[in-house]
Design a protein that fits this description.
Layout (H helix, E strand, L loop, with lengths): L2 H13 L14 E2 L9 E4 L7 E7 L3 E7 L6 E3 L18 E2 L6 E2 L6 E3 L8 E2 L1 E4 L2 E4 L1
Parallel strand pairs: 1-4
Antiparallel strand pairs: 2-11, 3-4, 4-5, 5-9, 6-7, 7-8, 10-11
């Protein structure tokens, strides 16, 4: 645990201050697949705009960033920025951006393009089956 996480946690416990005051975003879901399993539906294809993407809740307690570079292709990433864990925004203007320190990521690969992030977004395997996006 780093110093920032410890201090923010102590502040939240002792003063009732939400963790958002420490700049950690407002995660309502845990990044990643949660309790979802391979073959589970995570979204409808229509829920993911072509050339953009969407954050979707999965597995009852997880969240994924789905990106749709073309009509038939969908990619999924853990939406937690590797720098400090803030949930990234869906692609806009050709990049996925972390709202906290402005790291940017390639929507096609999740690779870091700029900013303080030490690495790219972790990809999660998904497949398109008819009009559904499923965990692989």
């Amino acid at each position: 645990m780093d110093r920032r996480t410890l201090l923010c946690g102590l502040l939240a416990l002792t003063a009732g201050v939400p963790l958002t005051a420490c700049g950690t975003g407002t995660p309502t879901r845990r990044p990643g697949v949660g309790s979802a399993r391979a073959g589970d539906r995570v979204a409808g294809l229509a829920d993911v705009p072509v050339g953009s993407g969407a954050l979707v809740d999965v597995g009852g307690d997880g969240q994924l960033l789905l990106v749709r570079p073309s009509e038939s292709e969908v990619r999924a990433f853990n939406p937690a920025c590797p720098h400090q864990g803030t949930t990234v925004n869906p692609p806009a203007a050709g990049a996925i951006t972390c709202p906290t320190h402005r790291s940017t990521f390639d929507p096609a690969s999740g690779a870091v393009l700029s900013g303080p992030s030490p690495r790219g977004l972790a990809e999660v395997a998904v497949t398109v089956s008819g009009s559904d996006v499923l965990l692989s």
